[in-house]
Amino acid sequence: MERAARHEQLAESSGRGLRSRIQGHPRYRWMVLVTVASGMMMAILSSSIVNIALPTITAEFGSNINTMTWVVTIFMITQATLMPVWGRAGDIYGHKKIFITGLLLFTSTSVLCTIAWDPYSLIVGRALQAIGSSALAPMALAFIFGAFPARDRAQALGIMGGVIGAAPVLGLTGGGLLVEAFGWRSVFFINIPLCALIVPAALIVLKESEASEESGFDIAGAVMLSTGLFAGLLGLNQGKNWGWDDPRIIGCFALMTVLITAFVFWEKRIAQPMLDLGLLKIRSLLSANIAGFFSSGAMFGSLVLLPYFFQSVLGDAPAATGFELAPLALMFVLVAPIGGRLTAAVGPRLTASAGLTIAALGFFILAMQLSPDVSSLRIASAILVMGIGLGLTMAPLTTAAVHDAPPDKRGIASSLPNMSRFIGGSFAIAVFSTFLTSRMTGYLLDAGIPAEAIEAGKSSGAAATGDTAVVKEALATSFHDVFLFAISFLVISLIIVQFIPKLRHEN
Fold it and tell me: Cα(403)–Cα(409) distance, rounded to whole angstroms?
């Protein structure tokens, strides 16, 4: 017994010594960045890696695409809904506790996804998985703002921006390889060994944040905000499937309006609110989040639509599609850190403006290239320009969104940029896909295809027109129109960016 106790004390002392050496290291802040970026990248990978596996899962379960899309939809909605809740919990109970809790919950629910026995068990597993992953992004940003001095913060956020931008495309490419080599369950199982590495690193590297002087968690506010956001995002995601005039969609938006309105009134009156509405009076925070809503909408909308163009118009295989999107990921990795350095040098307004202008040029070039016989090289050149522009915008918008928030509100403030991006993505996907369907129908009618045949094609998921060439031409022209329309999101973001003030450390 005594020997065991001595061994336990020795191990504990050794652990404290290792933790002290790491936390006293001159490059400690970069260790923090690697640790939290790893957790954040794993969460983002999980939101995209399953897309490639969906056809295989659908076939194995004998399900249909309408049911299986919930595997993706429930994850995205739950993440966006709960980020501010976890952000506030981190401010109250400690950022390290919440980050590790999120990792452990994400790991345990990945097991449930791996052993799923039918579509519904997988959908439930993905919802639970998203509960854990939604804690990671706001805590990661809070740790970066705490670990890095103002002069280095933008560069760190630029590296984080590269992770955020590259992860979805890496998920598409890596997901295809995993499914082909090990089957669809491997896209969920891969999270378990990754978490086994990240959790010990988080325990050793990360320092706990100072406890908030406020006590108690605003449960009522959290329920109103999360339920209202969930209802609105559900309506956005299902409007195309159920019909925008469907009573269920109208009910979702009505419930969102009622609950968000009630949330605002409640937060103004409670002593310890879930979301301090005074944060929204910070001009840098508000303008950066609105700009991020629209710029991320353009990015996520393009990531959803481009695979359809590659596969439906060009006839490419799903695995090849991921590699065709790889230039976008490459540009994020290379350019986002440059955006961080530029932000530190010239400020977020100029850096974001340059990025959005380049991104708009990339979308225009891409729209002009879209045709049934376009070469992969021409598509890649346009995607490269898009990636350069979007990569430049990540660090300045994130820096501006969190920079002026008080330290004791940094967790909730750090949740807002990611929440804005997810909601912007959901909004853009709904708008872009509806616009694409509308343009496609119009072009087919103009080509003399009967309306009955078009509707039959929609319901069966196939082209019931009997003329593949006409369908591909109509699809390509429709994608051209959608990507031109997407530029409007970037223009709105560019206008909003002009309202970002100079940050306190800028000269």
Answer: 11
Q: For residues 410 and 142, give the distance between their C-alpha atoms in angstroms, rounded to a whole number.
A: 6
Helix (H, G, I), strand (E, B) or coil at 63: coil
481 CA to centre of own chain: 25
Residue 358: its H or E element: helix 348-369
Secondary structure (DSSP) of 188-246: HHTHHHHHHHHHHHHHHHPPPPPPPS--S--HHHHHHHHHHHHHHHHHHHHHHHH-TTS
Instruction: With beta carbons less than 8 A apart as the criterion, state whether 168 and 48 touch.
Output: yes
CB 366 within 8 A of CB 386: yes
Biggest alpha carbon–alpha carbon distance for the chain: 88
Its pTM stands at 0.78
Tens digits of per-residue pLDDT, 32-63?
Answer: 888 888 888 887 777 777 777 777 787 888 87
Cα separation, 293 vs 490, in Å, equals 10
Q: Which residues contact 91 (CB under 8 A, 6 or more apart)?
A: 209, 212, 408, 409, 410, 411, 412
Label residue 199 exposed, middle or buried (CB < 10 Å: 0-12, 13-18, 19+): middle
For the segment 386-410, the average pLDDT, to the nearest whole number, is 84
Cα–Cα dist 233/481, whole Å:
25
Cα separation of 288 and 404, whole Å? 11
Q: Which residues of 160-169 are buried (b: 16+ CB within 10 A; e: fewer)?
A: bbbbbbbbbb
Q: What is the pLDDT of residues 243-255, one digit of tens each?
A: 888 899 999 999 9
Phi-psi region of 148 (alpha: psi -120 to 50; beta: other; left: phi over 0): beta
Buried b (16+ CB within 10 A) or exposed e, 375-414: eeeebebbbbbbbbbbbbbbbbbbbbbbbbbeebbbbbbb
Sorted by sequence, the CB contacts under 8 Å of residue 361 that are 6+ apart come out as 385, 389
* C-alpha separations of 246 from 70, 229, 241, 364, 458 in Å: 18, 19, 10, 35, 18
Whole-angstrom CA distances from 19 to 24, 209, 422 are 8, 16, 35
Cα 60 to Cα 65: distance, rounded to the nearest angstrom: 12
CA distances from 49 to 24, 115, 120, 171, 274 (A): 37, 17, 19, 4, 32
Q: Which two tokens stand for residue 259?
A: 């609950």
Helices (H), 24-182: 28-61, 65-93, 95-114, 119-133, 136-147, 150-182
**Which of the two residues, 172 and 478, has the higher pLDDT score?**
478
Q: Which residue has the tokens 């045709």?
A: 371
Rg (CA), the chain: 23
* Token code pair at residue 262: 């009630």
Q: CA 459, CA 69: separation in Å to the nearest integer?
A: 16
